[in-house]
Amino acid sequence: RAKEKGKNNFQIYTHALNAKALERLALENSLRRALEYKEFVVHYQPKVDTESEQVIGMEALVRWQHPKWGLVPPQKFIPLAEETGLIVPIGEWVLHTACTHTKALHNMGLKPLTVAVNLSAVQFELQNLTKMVSKVLAETGLDPQYLELEITESVAMQNVEHTLNMIRDLKAMGIKFAIDDFGTGYSSLSQLSNFSVHKLKIDRSFVSKINGEKDNSIIPSTVLALGKSLDLSIVAEGVESQEQVDFLKENNCDEMQGFFFGKPMPIENFKQLYSTDLNIDISKK
Ligand code: C2E
Ligand code: MG
Ligand code: MG
Ligand code: MG
């Protein structure tokens, strides 16, 4: 009897496992084909200078335009793309697309914007990452000083020696480097100063605490002061309210990004919305 029961359990178990495995396999297959069928799109979210509130750059954010599922957000497919290694070709495509779009904006004769592109842990571990990046820059003709690469704080901390080498190599190419989602990992101050990155992006969870009440802003202001003490440029992400803007101005944050200034959008919309803003700057030159 016990043997029979055990057998049944096993069947139920494999059945459940199969359903999950099949679902995953289906997702993996469509993800694999998505590149071929050009189903990925890059949206751009504006970044503004805190003092002038002028658009100075944008962050490239990938989406999957699935024929049946609609616009799939990155958090729904990046983990599987990382597990399967598909993030490597997807990431290269995103970088190529972002550099092409940015170069096209520069060619319009507007004030040159910077573009920030996210790198996943899997890409960051690749030995030939610098080669890939310089190939894309050569192919698209984008001046490296307008490219910013973002890695999250936890990725930077995974292998500190490797991170130091990568930052050194990419900086030698003239590319900027940012630590994303700052404050959510466990970097020590000394490690952070060793990294010699250009920017810290304060995680949205800290920015969302700013609501005009002093008690709630102790952590955000401490993170800002910390970045400043390391002589880094600070970007606040997830800025949604006027109160947060006021606070960030008072606390000398360098750049702001969030729904308050604009949601991620297709390049055509970005061009339309910000060409007027950028034209103003041109006439000032
Ligand atoms: P992230 O790099 O920290 O990007 C910021 C995320 O916060 C974006 O979500 C953006 O839409 C969202 N956000 C910005 N401002 C606000 C705001 O004011 N309020 C709220 N509620 N959200 C805001 P998204 O586009 O869904 O991307 C999520 C994450 O997926 C990104 O976080 C990044 O880690 C990853 N990701 C996106 N594109 C790529 C990519 O091309 N490659 C890799 N490896 N990861 C990517
Ligand atoms: Mg980012
Ligand atoms: Mg971020
Ligand atoms: Mg984030």
From TrEMBL:
According to the lineage, what is the superkingdom? Bacteria
Could you tell me the keywords of this UniProt record?
A: Phosphoprotein
| GO term, biological process aspect, one | phosphorelay signal transduction system
Pinpoint the EAL domain residues: 24-278
Function of the protein: May play the central regulatory role in sporulation. It may be an element of the effector pathway responsible for the activation of sporulation genes in response to nutritional stress. Spo0A may act in concert with spo0H (a sigma factor) to control the expression of some genes that are critical to the sporulation process.
**Full protein name:** Stage 0 sporulation protein A homolog
Protein's organism:
Peptoclostridium litorale DSM 5388
Q: Name the lineage.
A: Bacteria, Bacillati, Bacillota, Clostridia, Peptostreptococcales
